[in-house]
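Protocol step 4 of 6: record predicted structures for both targets in the notebook before any analysis. Target 1:
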Amino acid sequence: MAFYSNESIFQVLFVTLVLGGGCAVLAGHAIALTWRSIWIAAISMVPLGMAVRFVHFALFNETLLQPQAYLAETAILIAAACLSFQRTRAQQMVRQYYWLYEPSGPLGWRLRQDAPAKA
């Protein structure tokens, strides 16, 4: 936690994980619902990382332009958004194509054993 000189661990976790991570999860879910690519979810976390960095700056008087902290926070946000995206996409595939796919863990799907054969 050398990046954050003016904040406690609870403040960092609240801003980065709860506020930023919550937004990342919701964004990943929404992007998956519109059938867009996972790359859109990852790229959209770049400005969200900037917003999280700004919240640290505005509320807790941290340095605004701190590249290491920004990269760490953005990596956490990308991970949260991609996990949410993949979970939503797996649910979509199983729900929409129920005759073809079945769940395979929380993040995946597989071809059903009784799926129709190719003609």
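Target 2:
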Amino acid sequence: MNKKGGAARPADGVRMIAQNKKARFAFEVEDRFEAGLALSGSEVKSLRAGNVSLSDAYAQPKGADLVLVNCRIGEYQPAAFFGHPPLRERKLLLHRAEIEKIRGKVEQRGYTLVPLALYFKDGWAKVELALAKGRTHEDRRDAIAERETKREMDRAMSRKRR
């Protein structure tokens, strides 16, 4: 928190808006991409107010582009008359080579494109996308057990250092 009560800004010009914590648990992340978003003015205002949810969002190829689906950006109340629909598909801005690479992977069986985070970088809205495979129930249990084991080892090491 800064002196005015708002969120602290990192030195590199990145201000986090929302994170998709469930995606890191439910999917095995293989590759990450940073993409811009094509937004309307009221959507940007709503993002700055933090009125966004990534919980059910995913990206998919549509025509020659990639679109973000089910990303809920709530209405900006002062612009309610000329507002935007909260669940519309939003175009992702990537280089053509990146789009083709992602398209090739997504068309393979088992891969999906999930958003991990939404943030402002130097004033531009960006989304961090992950090319991921879904985890099975057993994989999730293994991940939890591995995380708990690592946590116990770290605790033991910190006790020993004291």
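Step 5 preliminary note on target 2. The chain has one domain: 15-135. The two ends are 31 Å apart (CA to CA).
Proceed to step 6 after PI sign-off.
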